[in-house]
Every structure is written in structure tokens, then in C-alpha cells.
TrEMBL record:
Listed Pfam families: PilZ
Any GO molecular function: cyclic-di-GMP binding
Protein name: PilZ domain-containing protein
InterPro entries to which the protein is assigned, alphabetical: PilZ_domain (IPR009875)
Domain PilZ, chain residue ranges per copy: 22-106
SUPFAM superfamilies documented for this protein: PilZ domain-like
Organism: Oleiharenicola lentus
């Protein structure tokens, strides 16, 4: 396992971007039930597994079984997913006793800018995915004969389009996800395609049928794919269950 920046090539997170995120310090995001992020809280050298209730740029909400904790206590929060992890110091700001354990509110105390950046990059798939909402059907233009388009929008610059065959109950056909310059397209039975507008080829008169892209470096493609897949694992209940299952299958 290693502590690394998960999206160092596609999410630069310079200091001015970090400051913009921190303006939403109290905004809480709820991880999707299928998102495999694990948490451990360590107080006085006694680590305990915890259930993540929500995460924010400034801390976390956890549910922990076992003995109660004391408000104001210092702790370490360890977050792990796949073979990567982030760990940082925090303070227990709130404690609510439950029948089996307690609910904790943690305030982060990052030791360095790099530590803060690593955590905020880990937060992004949750922050992006959890705020997607359904666009009302009457606002969606149906331009493809034989296809029914569904649109889901989230934070500015992010959109998920899903096509079903024939009507809104037909079999799923394809999807198009875009976040800023990054694009993922997928069709049932075909390999997922990953693009970046930063690698777009300037159109010519001879080729005006649609955008063309240069091949992405392998590490950039891997990060876009990971961001897409993890974002889909954090879609909220506002997105229908069958749509979630479809987009999470790529």
C-alpha cells in the first residue's frame, strides 16, 4: 500500500484551487454504499474500524462501535481504498452516544499541504458523484431515433448521459460522461473509450464529422478511468437503481 496522489495528472489542485474547495469546508458528502472506502480511527494507539457517514473538505463523520470517545480528543483518521491510503491528524469535535457505540464528528488537522491535497483528491469521486440529479424528462431533447436519452447533472462542468433503446423502459445501450475536459464513452458489448479535450486534434475541412483525439498517455487514461468508475460508485438514490447498476458495470 502507498500514500499517493490518486489523480495527480488530471486534478492538479494548486493552492488557489484548494482554497476554492475549502470555501465549501462544511459541505458534507455521503459515500455510495458500494464505494469500497474503509476507515480506521486511532485514539491513544487503539485503532478501531469505523463506518463513514459523510466526508467534507474539513473533516469526517463516523460511526464507531465500542466505548465512547471524548470531545476534544486528538485522533488519527486512516482512509484506505484498493492499494492506496491517506492518514491525517484530527480532533473529535462532536460525540453522540448511540445504543451500540457512538457517532463522531472529526475536524481535520492536516500537517502539510501535500497531506491536505491527498485527502481532497480522494474526496473528489464522492463530491462529484453524490450530487448528481435527474434532469426532468421534458427538458431533455430526444434527437436520436430509436433511442431514449436520460440526463443527469451535478457540479458545473459535469454531466452523465445514458441512452436506452426505444423508450424509457428499453434495454440500456450506451453512456457519455464528461467532467470538464475529461470524457468517457461506453456502449454495451464494447470497450470503454476515454478521451481528454486537452488532446483534441484541431478539425480540418476534410474531417468535419466530429471531434478527434490523440491517444492518451497510459497514466492519464488510467486516472480518468479511475475517476469515472469511482464517481459512478457514489451516485445517490436520485439516480434510478437500474441506471446505477448499468453505469457501474464498466
Amino acid at each position: 500500500m502507498s500514500r499517493v496522489l490518486l489523480f495527480s495528472r488530471i486534478l492538479g489542485f494548486e493552492e488557489n484551487h484548494i482554497r476554492e474547495i475549502e470555501r465549501r469546508r462544511e459541505q458534507r458528502y455521503v459515500p455510495g454504499k458500494v464505494f469500497p472506502l474503509q476507515a480506521t480511527i486511532d485514539v491513544d494507539g487503539e485503532p478501531r474500524s469505523a463506518k463513514i457517514m459523510d466526508l467534507s473538505p474539513g473533516g469526517a463523520g463516523l460511526r464507531v462501535a465500542g466505548p465512547a470517545y471524548t470531545r476534544g480528543s486528538l485522533a488519527k483518521l486512516h482512509l484506505m481504498i484498493d492499494d492506496s491510503w491517506v492518514e491525517f491528524a484530527c480532533t473529535i469535535a462532536h460525540v453522540r452516544i448511540l445504543p451500540s457505540g457512538c457517532r463522531l464528528g472529526l475536524t481535520a488537522g492536516f500537517a502539510s499541504f501535500d497531506e491536505k491535497k491527498a485527502y481532497l483528491q480522494l474526496l473528489q469521486p464522492i463530491a462529484i458523484g453524490s450530487v448528481f440529479r435527474v434532469t426532468p424528462p421534458e427538458e431533455v431533447r430526444q434527437l436520436d431515433p430509436g433511442m431514449h436519452k436520460l440526463v443527469f447533472t451535478g457540479r458545473p462542468g459535469t454531466e452523465l448521459n445514458v441512452w436506452r433503446q426505444t423508450d424509457d423502459a428499453g434495454p440500456f445501450h450506451s453512456l457519455h460522461w464528461q467532467m470538464d475536459d475529461y470524457i468517457v464513452q461506453a456502449t454495451v458489448g464494447a470497450e470503454m473509450q476515454v478521451y481528454s479535450r486537452k488532446y483534441m486534434i484541431a478539425p480540418t475541412r476534410a474531417k468535419a464529422s466530429g471531434p478527434a483525439y490523440r491517444k492518451l498517455p497510459a497514466d492519464v487514461q488510467a486516472e480518468i478511468s479511475r475517476l469515472f468508475r469511482w464517481t459512478m460508485l457514489n451516485l445517490p438514490k436520485d439516480v434510478p437503481a437500474d441506471v446505477r447498476t448499468f453505469v457501474q458495470g464498466f
